[in-house]
Amino acid sequence: MRRRRMGALHVVGEPRVSFQHQQQQPAAAAAGSKSGGHGPVVEEIHGLLRVYKDGHVERPPAIPDVPCTWGATAPGAPGGVAARDVVVDRATGVWARLYAPVAAGAGAGLPVVVYFHGGGFCVGSAAWSCYHEFLVQLAARAGCAVMSVDYRLAPEHRLPAAFDDGLEALRWLWHQAALPTGTGRATAAADEVSWWRARCGFDRVFLMGDSAGANIAFHVAARLGQGHLGALSPLAVRGAVLVQPFFGGEARTASERTMPQPPRSALTLPTSDCYWRLALPAGAGRDHPWCNPLSRAAPRLEALPLPPLLVCVSEADVLRDRNLELCRALRRAGKGVEQAVYGGVGHAFQVLHNCHLSQPRTQEMLAHIKAFVSAR
């Protein structure tokens, strides 16, 4: 994890970035062959990702990183939200950004949200300003502590690396739950996470993510239910929040085939296809269980131990129909599922603010998440 200088932070509006997959034209491929000796560009998502024939990967800084500071303040959130970066696994380089409200009355026993960012498994960071802003709001408005996990990315680390990193994040959290929660000066000097840990109610943990991060949250929840980490006590996972979950399949849904997308859409069908080609194991089809949990190759949902779920669906998202079908399948399997559909907005509206309805719909989403967490 890169160390960052501590200082004042002011969150500003996000640039509107295009996330379109681009097919390489012959001239572009020829130019790519001269770029740093890596050969032609074989996959590209404009402004976000460029993959060369020799495997070299470039990720242009489309969205700025923001430094971490204990003084981070959410717009309109009196009292502010404290944040800090910590190492989760030195062997893999996985780290996390921790958040907790510092407003009066935000004491111990806050529910803990373990969050996984989106980006098709291939791009994104817990340090991206759009995620930092959203999670500061989540901590302040939902009254929770947040652990935002910066997992390894594909294609350098194809699935299941992100799922493994999600489990490792829960293992780190389990160790934190076993440590003292003192907040005295001597304790804080010896353990820089003690202040955050003292705010956490580890018996109320929620997995959450958007897009690819929601896919990670789903599969981590399933693995935990199957006992991949053994006994979790004193941790208790009470639910999972899946925001526009990024799943796929060989057969196209109606929204994937026909949903028109504006030029600045965060996810189009070609972009989705590109992400899956880079994230799944080489040669895997789109009905691989990590992509399509409803395929014949996937474990039966009836036998899958899952906590209660809140699925947040965007009306103008190409994934809309796939998300709704997942909700129906989970209900048929006897799982506890709540769904919320946000009208007039597309994929990742809550972090990209790329629609005039983004802000009011984001506040609706935060209210739904708060109610879901508070009920458990």
UniProtKB/TrEMBL annotation:
It comes from the Eukaryota. GO terms for molecular function: hydrolase activity. Signal peptide: none annotated. This is Alpha/beta hydrolase fold-3 domain-containing protein. Pfam families: Abhydrolase_3 (PF07859). Residues 113-350 form the Alpha/beta hydrolase fold-3 domain. Residues 12-38 are annotated as: Disordered. Residues 20-31 have a biased composition (Low complexity). It comes from Panicum virgatum. InterPro entries: AB_hydrolase_3 (IPR013094), AB_hydrolase_fold (IPR029058), Carboxylest/Gibb_receptor (IPR050466).
